Amino acid sequence: MPASAPLRGVIAPTLTPFNDDMTIAEDLYVAHAKRCLADGCIGLAPFGTTSEALSVGMDERMRMLEALAEAGVDPACMIPGTGLTNLPDTIKLTRHAVELGCAGAMTLPPFYFKGVPDDGLYDYFRRLIDGVADDRLQIYLYHIPQVAGVGLPVPLVRRLHQDFPRVIVGIKDSSGDWENTSALLDIEGLRVYPGSELPLVDALGKGATGCISATANINAAGIGETIRLFDTRGAEAAAAHHEAVRKFRLAVQGYAPIPVMKRLLALASGDGRWANTRPPLLPASVEEGQALAAQLAGDFGFQLAA
Fold it and tell me: 32-54: b or e for each residue (b if 16 or more CB lie within 10 Å)?
């Protein structure tokens, strides 16, 4: 069957709120997902890096996807992270996403063993496809070598896409290396999402589908406007708007982004649970959150709604 249409726009790898006992705060989780969509996200990528995914259990991940669907969030706008270090668990998470009706699965390479050959990574994804055994499966590879320690070289991505064109449909490139992103954009038919909005205008110019960005959790409207302007008025208008979006991103990157964005949400909502992080991450201090909030308000007129 043909691959479904891509989600064109900005996608949020949604933050995961925790109660004080470190269980997931389902009420905050669902409300935040809905707010991201209302603010301009075309889709959600639950349990990406920004979601503290590797600190969240398999059952928790599956339950939260179900909670979103039960609350009226269309699974067709979700590309959840499913990649773990072993095939059985990755197959289980990926199959669950497919059966729920998700638009795709964002899948890391197996990331424990380092220096593995490309043929080994190819075999992993081949067996993942065989294991899920569902014609609806669409995989978005996830390339973040500076964190995972294992990357997906461009020739391997091209081979996987050519051999499984209706399944290996896209990639999130969080390498931060424009040359790598540009090379991926040269692969015919591959949907490429940079993992940051920083190169967004250039990426759109080469055919990128949008971006999957951590700061979409708090600046979806700004990033989404760059894409809207590019589509309606062209690259020059998009670039003029995007300069402030880039500076916003760089301001957040000056902190540990996950804890500080959670602290911003805690300050905006008055709900201290938002500041919680699971170990090994530590919460950002109130002072850090207040400093960033003041910087964003002063430089960009930014006020995060409760």
Answer: bbebbbebbbbbbbbbbbbbbbb
